[in-house]
Specification:
four-stranded mixed sheet; 2 domains; Glutaredoxin; homodimer; globular
């Protein structure tokens, strides 16, 4: 297997943590996003969308999208379970992971990509160009703040995001919290439950990558 | 089990088709979205986000988000497989389903929700209010057109969206094509591969619901 990564980007970091939690070491290829390598012919042959991360299997099958790569890894390397064991657990984990991705991670991306000079003309990830929309900067920031508040509310009544076990939803939430901090939207001091959770998750060896 | 549905909304339709493909009949509760029933106290106790669909299990566990409900159903009722069998298949199906959801379904929602008078103040689904942003109408429509073009390209070389088997990705794509048609963005006449696929999928008994 070969993992196409970018060590500074938040999306592939979700997969790096997932791999580390599974104890999987993997050949990694760094893609120079700032230099536009994701739009090179060689990379577009792997992923026509022009995004990282991408996982390429032994037979050449290329899987893109962080959540889809994690789905492959979970099926191929089931232990430790990170996406739930029973059908109900699997549904609940998928629900929380989807929530963290849509309302947290993508909201932070919305705030960043519509503001950053270097992303002019690329307000959405991928090969298709889209102009920045200034109103989305404020909307994205509001969404992130609401997400952080809802995370605190959830964690006041639950040890982890999706329940009593550490799962992929904690990974997506942690990466989102760090992404938000880069946008100067830190976890508020008053968010005691989310801060307790963050300290625990952030201390796991998997998250340093 | 109890399924909280809205028969005119595209998102729960994804789950209705999934259930029908599995041959599952289920007690269904119609939620009056136009009347705001999704924001009633009773409904918010089931799903604090205020969205349909929601599936409530025998023990009272409530799962929201179409893709998460399908994940539960796939695990609880494995046959026929709609999310892939081998690990590689599971990853590839998840990738295409995510692509169809993000670039197709959510793009159509962006075009609709930022334009429709009745959705003023609700440009994103859920309980949190967000003002409409006129620039997103055009962006959403462009994204849908690009999605339809990429669907045709994919289906020129693949029988179904995720490969040689019918999967959840076909369901998400079909619901998106019908959603787009309501926005007067039909599959172009020249999209021969996507039209061949659409006719086949649309003829499945599951899609009439």
């Amino acid at each position: 297997m070969k993992f196409y990564d970018c060590s500074t980007a938040p999306s592939p970091r979700r997969v790096r943590i997932f791999l580390a939690e599974k104890g999987i070491e993997i050949l990694t290829v760094e893609i120079d996003l700032a230099g536009g390598e994701q739009f090179s012919d060689a990379f577009l042959r792997l992923n026509p969308r022009g995004t990282v991360p991408v996982l390429v299997l032994e037979d050449g099958t290329a899987i893109s999208e962080a959540s889809a790569i994690c789905r492959y890894i979970e099926a191929a390397y089931p232990e430790p379970r990170l996406m739930g064991r029973t059908p109900a657990e699997q549904g609940i984990v998928a629900m929380w992971d989807h929530y963290c991705e849509q309302e947290g991670f993508f909201a932070a991306a919305e705030a960043l990509r519509n503001a950053a000079r270097r992303l002019e003309g690329h307000a959405l990830t991928g090969r298709d160009g889209y102009p920045q929309i200034p109103a989305l900067v404020e909307r994205g920031r509001t969404r992130v703040q609401r997400f952080l508040a809802s995370l605190d509310e959830r964690l006041a009544g639950s040890r982890y995001v999706a329940g009593e076990q550490f799962t992929i939803a904690d990974i997506t939430a942690l990466v989102t919290v760090d992404f938000a901090a880069r946008l100067r939207l830190p976890l508020p001091d008053a968010s005691a439950a989310a801060r307790r959770w963050y300290e625990e998750i952030n201390a796991r060896p998997s998250t340093t990558g």
